[in-house]
Protein backbone atom coordinates (compact mmCIF):
# COMPACT_ATOMS: atom_id res chain seq x y z
CA UNK A 1 0.00 0.00 0.00
CA UNK A 2 2.82 2.41 0.87
CA UNK A 3 4.58 1.64 -2.41
CA UNK A 4 1.41 2.32 -4.40
CA UNK A 5 0.89 5.61 -2.57
CA UNK A 6 4.53 6.62 -3.19
CA UNK A 7 4.19 5.83 -6.92
CA UNK A 8 0.96 7.86 -7.19
CA UNK A 9 2.52 10.86 -5.40
CA UNK A 10 5.60 10.66 -7.67
CA UNK A 11 3.45 10.53 -10.81
CA UNK A 12 1.37 13.47 -9.59
CA UNK A 13 4.55 15.48 -8.91
CA UNK A 14 5.95 14.65 -12.36
CA UNK A 15 2.61 15.52 -13.96
CA UNK A 16 2.47 18.88 -12.16
CA UNK A 17 6.08 19.65 -13.18
CA UNK A 18 5.30 18.70 -16.81
CA UNK A 19 2.39 21.16 -16.88
CA UNK A 20 4.68 23.98 -15.78
CA UNK A 21 7.35 23.07 -18.37
CA UNK A 22 5.05 22.17 -21.29
CA UNK A 23 6.68 22.70 -24.71
CA UNK A 24 5.32 25.49 -26.87
CA UNK A 25 3.79 23.23 -29.53
CA UNK A 26 1.87 21.11 -26.99
CA UNK A 27 -1.20 22.77 -25.53
CA UNK A 28 -2.42 19.85 -23.39
CA UNK A 29 -0.75 17.48 -20.97
CA UNK A 30 -2.28 14.26 -22.27
CA UNK A 31 -1.59 12.18 -25.36
CA UNK A 32 -3.89 10.14 -27.59
CA UNK A 33 -2.35 8.25 -30.47
CA UNK A 34 -3.66 5.82 -33.08
CA UNK A 35 -1.40 3.90 -35.45
CA UNK A 36 -2.40 1.83 -38.47
CA UNK A 37 0.34 -0.57 -39.55
CA UNK A 38 1.32 -2.91 -42.39
CA UNK A 39 4.20 -5.34 -42.28
CA UNK A 40 5.23 -8.84 -41.37
CA UNK A 41 4.48 -10.97 -38.30
CA UNK A 42 5.73 -14.40 -37.28
CA UNK A 43 4.60 -16.81 -34.60
CA UNK A 44 7.17 -19.53 -34.07
CA UNK A 45 7.81 -22.41 -31.70
CA UNK A 46 10.05 -25.46 -31.66
CA UNK A 47 7.35 -27.36 -33.60
CA UNK A 48 6.20 -24.90 -36.27
CA UNK A 49 6.33 -21.38 -37.61
CA UNK A 50 3.49 -19.25 -38.97
CA UNK A 51 3.83 -15.88 -40.53
CA UNK A 52 3.22 -13.52 -43.36
CA UNK A 53 1.76 -10.17 -44.29
CA UNK A 54 0.11 -8.51 -41.30
CA UNK A 55 -2.12 -5.62 -40.31
CA UNK A 56 -1.89 -3.90 -36.97
CA UNK A 57 -3.62 -1.21 -34.96
CA UNK A 58 -2.37 0.52 -31.81
CA UNK A 59 -4.01 2.89 -29.36
CA UNK A 60 -1.89 4.98 -26.99
CA UNK A 61 -3.19 7.00 -24.06
CA UNK A 62 -0.65 8.99 -22.09
CA UNK A 63 0.19 11.87 -19.84
CA UNK A 64 3.10 14.34 -20.10
CA UNK A 65 5.73 13.81 -17.40
CA UNK A 66 8.51 16.11 -18.63
CA UNK A 67 9.25 18.47 -21.48
CA UNK A 68 8.57 16.54 -24.73
CA UNK A 69 8.08 13.21 -22.86
CA UNK A 70 5.02 11.20 -21.87
CA UNK A 71 4.15 7.96 -20.10
CA UNK A 72 1.61 5.96 -22.06
CA UNK A 73 -0.65 2.92 -21.93
CA UNK A 74 -0.62 1.03 -25.22
CA UNK A 75 -3.16 -1.44 -26.59
CA UNK A 76 -2.19 -3.24 -29.78
CA UNK A 77 -3.54 -5.97 -32.03
CA UNK A 78 -1.96 -7.67 -35.06
CA UNK A 79 -3.49 -10.11 -37.54
CA UNK A 80 -1.18 -12.13 -39.81
CA UNK A 81 -2.18 -13.59 -43.17
CA UNK A 82 -0.97 -17.14 -42.48
CA UNK A 83 -2.51 -20.58 -42.86
CA UNK A 84 -4.07 -21.03 -40.38
CA UNK A 85 -4.64 -17.38 -39.44
CA UNK A 86 -2.69 -16.04 -36.47
CA UNK A 87 -3.06 -12.96 -34.31
CA UNK A 88 -1.46 -11.30 -31.30
CA UNK A 89 -2.73 -8.72 -28.86
CA UNK A 90 -0.98 -6.88 -26.05
CA UNK A 91 -1.25 -4.17 -23.44
CA UNK A 92 1.72 -2.29 -22.07
CA UNK A 93 3.24 0.70 -20.31
CA UNK A 94 5.86 2.80 -21.99
CA UNK A 95 7.62 6.10 -22.48
CA UNK A 96 7.62 8.29 -25.59
CA UNK A 97 10.07 11.14 -26.15
CA UNK A 98 9.92 13.79 -28.88
CA UNK A 99 13.11 15.33 -30.24
CA UNK A 100 12.30 18.93 -31.02
CA UNK A 101 12.60 20.85 -33.29
CA UNK A 102 13.26 17.93 -35.71
CA UNK A 103 9.86 16.37 -34.80
CA UNK A 104 11.32 12.87 -34.40
CA UNK A 105 10.31 10.53 -31.60
CA UNK A 106 11.16 7.18 -30.01
CA UNK A 107 8.98 5.02 -27.84
CA UNK A 108 9.67 1.96 -25.69
CA UNK A 109 6.95 -0.16 -24.14
CA UNK A 110 6.93 -3.20 -21.82
CA UNK A 111 4.15 -5.50 -23.05
CA UNK A 112 1.93 -8.23 -21.65
CA UNK A 113 0.26 -10.18 -24.45
CA UNK A 114 -0.80 -13.41 -26.07
CA UNK A 115 -1.13 -14.95 -29.51
CA UNK A 116 -3.87 -17.08 -31.05
CA UNK A 117 -4.01 -19.42 -34.05
CA UNK A 118 -7.08 -20.27 -36.12
CA UNK A 119 -9.92 -18.29 -37.63
CA UNK A 120 -11.97 -18.58 -34.43
CA UNK A 121 -8.95 -18.32 -32.11
CA UNK A 122 -9.03 -22.10 -31.50
CA UNK A 123 -5.60 -22.20 -29.83
CA UNK A 124 -4.30 -19.33 -27.70
CA UNK A 125 -1.05 -19.01 -25.78
CA UNK A 126 -0.69 -18.18 -22.14
CA UNK A 127 0.15 -14.57 -21.32
CA UNK A 128 3.74 -13.60 -21.97
CA UNK A 129 6.02 -10.61 -21.56
CA UNK A 130 7.55 -8.61 -24.37
CA UNK A 131 8.79 -5.31 -25.64
CA UNK A 132 7.63 -2.80 -28.22
CA UNK A 133 9.91 -0.24 -29.85
CA UNK A 134 8.87 2.52 -32.23
CA UNK A 135 10.57 5.41 -33.94
CA UNK A 136 9.20 7.96 -36.35
CA UNK A 137 8.56 11.52 -37.35
CA UNK A 138 5.53 13.67 -36.53
CA UNK A 139 4.46 16.47 -38.83
CA UNK A 140 2.40 18.81 -36.67
CA UNK A 141 -0.78 19.94 -38.40
CA UNK A 142 -1.33 22.47 -35.63
CA UNK A 143 -0.30 22.87 -31.98
CA UNK A 144 -2.23 19.73 -30.91
CA UNK A 145 -2.34 17.28 -33.85
CA UNK A 146 0.38 15.42 -35.68
CA UNK A 147 0.63 12.73 -38.34
CA UNK A 148 3.64 10.82 -39.59
CA UNK A 149 5.35 7.57 -40.53
CA UNK A 150 6.87 5.20 -37.99
CA UNK A 151 8.73 1.92 -37.84
CA UNK A 152 7.37 -0.49 -35.20
CA UNK A 153 8.91 -3.61 -33.67
CA UNK A 154 7.03 -5.99 -31.35
CA UNK A 155 8.33 -9.09 -29.59
CA UNK A 156 6.46 -11.34 -27.16
CA UNK A 157 7.94 -14.38 -25.37
CA UNK A 158 4.98 -16.72 -24.91
CA UNK A 159 6.42 -19.67 -22.94
CA UNK A 160 8.13 -21.55 -25.74
CA UNK A 161 6.46 -19.62 -28.55
CA UNK A 162 7.69 -16.26 -29.82
CA UNK A 163 5.76 -13.55 -31.60
CA UNK A 164 7.73 -11.10 -33.71
CA UNK A 165 6.29 -8.22 -35.75
CA UNK A 166 7.89 -5.51 -37.86
CA UNK A 167 5.58 -2.84 -39.31
CA UNK A 168 5.57 0.41 -41.17
CA UNK A 169 2.87 2.55 -39.55
CA UNK A 170 1.08 5.84 -39.96
CA UNK A 171 0.62 7.55 -36.59
CA UNK A 172 -2.09 10.06 -35.75
CA UNK A 173 -1.38 11.93 -32.51
CA UNK A 174 -3.32 14.41 -30.40
CA UNK A 175 -1.23 15.99 -27.65
Alpha carbon gyration radius:
18 Å
What does the overall shape look like? Answer: elongated
CATH topology: Porin
Given the structure, what is the number of helices? 1
Q: Which structural category fits the helices and strands?
A: mainly beta
Q: Briefly, what CATH class?
A: Mainly Beta
The first-to-last residue Cα distance is: 32 Å
What is the number of strand segments? 10
Mean pLDDT: 83
Oligomer: single chain
| Portion in beta strands | over 45%
| Biggest sheet record | 8 strands, antiparallel, barrel
Give a verbal description of the structure.
With 175 residues, this protein is mainly beta. It has one domain (2-174): Porin (Beta Barrel). It is 11% helix and 66% strand. The chain is built from one helix and ten strands; from the N terminus they run H-E-E-E-E-E-E-E-E-E-E. The protein has one helix at 2-20; strands at residues 30-45, 49-66, 69-80, 86-99, 104-117, 123-124, 128-137, 139-140, 145-157, 161-174. It has an eight-stranded antiparallel barrel. The radius of gyration is 18 Å and the shape is elongated. The model is unreliable at 11-27 (pLDDT under 50).
Provide a short characterization of the protein structure.
The chain is mainly β. Helix content is 11%, strand content 66%.
Amino acid sequence: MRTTLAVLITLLALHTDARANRPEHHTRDFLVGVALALGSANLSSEVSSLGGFSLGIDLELGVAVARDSALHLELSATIANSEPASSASSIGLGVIHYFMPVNGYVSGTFLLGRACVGTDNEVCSDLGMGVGLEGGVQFWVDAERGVGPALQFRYLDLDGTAFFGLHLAVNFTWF
